[in-house]
Every structure is written in C-alpha cells, then in structure tokens.
Amino acid sequence: MSVVEENARSLSNKNEPSYTLQAILSWGLLLFGLLTLIYPRVAHQPLLPAYTYSNLKDFSFWQIPFVYVGSYFTRAGGPLLFAFMLGGIIASFIPRETMKRYMSSRNFGSYMIGASSAPLLTVCSCAMIPVFGGILISGAGIGPAISFFLVAPAANILSLIFTIDLISWKIALTRLFFSWLGAIFIGLIVSRTSWGRSVETRYSGIERLTVEDEHKPSFSKKSWNASIEAGHLARMVLPYLILGVAGVSFIEAYLPPQIVSRFLVGLKGIILGGFIGVPFYTPTLVEVFLTKAMINLGMSPSAAVAFLIGGPMASIPSMLGVSRLIGWKTVFTYASLAVILSIIAGITYSLTFTTL
Amino acid sequence: MSKKIEIIGGGCPKCEKMLANSKEAVKLLNVEAEIVPVFDKMAGIQRGLSDTPALIIDGKVKCMGRVAEIEEIKKWLT
Questions:
Q1: Least CB-CB distance to B45: which of A124, A130, A321?
Q2: Which residue on chain A is closest to B12 by alpha carbon?
Q3: Starting at the edge strand that comes first in sequence, how are the strands of the sheet with B3-8 ordered?
Q4: What is the dihedral of CA A307, A172, A161, A342, to 10 degrees?
Q5: Could you tell me which chain B residue has the CA closest to the CA of A16?
Q6: Domain residues for B42?
C-alpha cells in the first residue's frame, strides 16, 4: 500500500483526500525560507546571490527604484518567503477562536493574552478591526482591546523578523518589549478614563456570537492551508511593499544626510522619531525598509526605535479606522500615550545599548 | 424558498474567496439563494461578529474567521 493510500485510509472522517505532498511542500518552503535567514549569519555571506550596488546616486532617477527594489528582492526574497509561510502557518494552526475564549473577563490576564497574542494573530491586517471589536464586546472590554490593537502593528511578527534581519536584533527586542509592556499600560489607563468606560458600556449590550465549528482539518490539510494563507498574505502585502520600497529608494537617494544627522540624532531625534511616525503611514513592512534607509542616512538607532513604535501604534489611518467605533477622545488618549511610550523606549535603548 | 447568504468582511482576499466559494456552491446545488456581500468592517460588530470573514445563512452564523470550503457551504445549504 502506498503512503498516499495509507494516509487516506487512516483519516477517520469521510473520504477526505490526503494532503501529504502539499504538506511536505509547505513545511519545505518554510524551512528553506528559514535557511536563507539563518545561513548569512553563520557563513557571513548570503545563501542566494544578491545584487548589490555601491552608490545609489550612480543611477539615473528612473533606474533608482528598480535597482533598489531589485537589490532588496534578491537579498530579502528568502526571508520574505519565510515570513509569509510563518504567517500562513500561524493563521492555519492557531485559530483566533481559542485566543478569544481566554480573553473574556476583565482581569489582568486578558491584557496579557491580548498583548501577547497580538504579534502572532494579526497576520491578516484586515481582520484587525473586527477582532478589536470582538474583544470590545466580550467581557474583557476596552482595555485589552486597546492593548491588542496597539501591539498588533508595532510588534507584528513579520515586522519583527525583518527588523532583526535588516536592522538589528537589539532594536527588534526593544520594539517588542516596549510595545508589549506599553500597550498593557495604555490599555489599563484607557479603561480607567470616563470616555473609555462609556465606550465599553455602549457596546456591552451586544452579544458576541460564537460558532460551533465542526471543521477539524487534519495536520496535512492545515499545512496545505498554511500555504494558501501565505499566498493571501503575499497578495495583500507585496504590491504595497514594492511600491513603498520604491518610494523609500528616492528618500535614500535624495534626502540629504546632513538634515537627517542634524535632526534625527540625540534626544531631539528620539522625540522627533516618535512624532513623525504619526502622519507617516507606511504599509506593512515598509516601515522597516524606511527606517533602514534613514539609518543609512544617519538616523540614530534610538530615534529609529521611537519611530518603529510610535509610527505603527499611532498611525493616522488606523486611528481614522477605529475612531468610528470608539470615538476620538479614546483615540487621542491612546495615540498620545503611544508617542510618549515610543520616546521612553528610545531613551531606554540609548541608555542600554549606546551612547546618545 | 430562497436562502439568504451574507458574507461579512473587509474586502481582503479571504472575503473574496468566501464569496466565490458561496457562488460556486449555490451553482453546484442549483438552489435559489440570494448572496449579499457586506464588505464593511464596522457592520460585523453590531451583529456580534468578532472576526472576518463571516458567513451567515438565513441569519445564522455558520463560519467566522476562515474561508469555508465549497463542500461545507453546500452542506449548510441543504
């Protein structure tokens, strides 16, 4: 009996086809992507040939975005594969329902679960507002909902992987730690404001629906779903990512380094870094490439930390999106606290890892 | 009697896939069904939905947070 037939027989539910081959493909892609991420750190050269250039300004205006994007694509293509496959596997194997079940009471545990699961569970950014709304109408209320909503963009696992790969693990760690801790604090503070509470009561009447899901796919089916989810993710992220990085190419080529090293260093740089993220919306992952370009131009790492936390947490589009649900008072509260948090994070980074 | 299938979502690829699967299921079963896509993220929360995409058949939530397969939708429609 072949392996495929054996697998088909061993499945207890009805005649579900076996997904062994697809599962092997999925996990293979994940491991290959991981290899392209780890190999350069060990062997000090990339696994696949990368196209590099010495000076961006050697190229003409129209060539610049292509050279820049092309160079990054050869260098970051493998890690992108890993990131998308990881996102797909998380989306396929960790159903959001389980997380929500543990986050249904107004105790401190809900804040922890909300903040800790947010990096993993928002691989599809379009579901962020519905999940936020779901936590809002559950027993946990507005505090954990805000904590979740803040950690998700600031410490998203895709962003963290790329921060480690393109920038530094120290910045990624600072980003993760302060996003997590700060989001919990900000959520707690918001839940104690009068306007935060009124939002909570406004939504307390709605009963949250749960679905009795009999759909229990096999491990190999889930593995194959992971590839499908990864594909969805790539389809959503890649177009804007490419456009965003093309835009960044012009910044790295033409923004005078003197301006960057004058304003984006030192304490002034940290404060500015926290603030400029607010109007500067960047699509998923683009903020890492933009930060890398700014660092190349002379931005200090601590200012980068502030930008990488304040920007995603307090970006205007997400504020606009959620203001329809919770009103502008609550939005301004968490946004201003987020900027303060990002400045504190930047200062802490500079005291811990560098000299200002 | 015509069934009402609603798909609540934000317009991301998963919602499109759910819509496509629903249309295919209806076609395969040859039943009368009205498919109503509601691609507005705020619409879900008022009805108690906490995840997208969500599939609602005749007012009952059948699936939330993932894309239902064509076979599943067929089963729910019969």
A1: A130
A2: A126
A3: B33-38, B3-8, B54-57, B60-64
A4: -30
A5: B71
A6: 3-77
B61: enclosing H helix or E strand: strand B60-64
Whole-angstrom distance, CA of residue A91 vs CA of residue A230: 9
Q: Which residues pair with B34 in a beta bridge?
A: B4
With beta carbons less than 8 A apart as the criterion, state whether A257 and A347 touch.
no
Say whether A213 and B63 touch across the interface (CB within 8 A). Answer: yes
- CA A251 – CA A233 distance, rounded (Å): 27
Residue A275 has pLDDT above 50, yes or no: yes
Is the confidence at residue A304, as pLDDT, over 80?
yes
Mutate to test the interface with B, among A142, A209, A221 (most CBs of B within 10 A): A209
Contact B14 A232 (CB under 8 A): yes
pLDDT tens, position by position, A228-245: 889 888 888 899 999 999
Number of folded domains that form chain B: 1
pLDDT 10s digits, A172-224: 999 999 999 999 999 999 989 888 888 888 887 777 777 766 677 888 888 98
Q: Residue A160: what pLDDT?
A: 92
Q: How far apart are CA A266 and CA A246, in angstroms?
A: 29
Q: Pull the structure tokens for residue A301.
A: 């790492």
Residues A45 and A38 sit within 8 Å (Cβ to Cβ): no
pTM > 0.90: yes or no: no
Cα angle: A344, vertex A145, A84; to 5 degrees: 80
| Residue A202 contacts B where some CB pair is shorter than 8 Å | no
Structure tokens at B34: 């009205």
* Location of structure tokens 């928002």: A122
Please count the helices (runs of H) and the strands (runs of E) in chain B: 3, 4
- Say what the ipTM of the complex is: 0.84
Quote the crossing angle between the two packed helices A169-192 and A301-313, to the nearest 10°. 40
Between CA A38 and CA A169 the distance in angstroms is: 13
CATH at B60: 3.40.30.10
Q: List chain B residues with CB under 8 Å of A237.
A: none
Domain ranges of chain A: 18-47+57-209+218-353
Q: What sign does the CA torsion over A113, A115, A116, A120 have?
A: positive
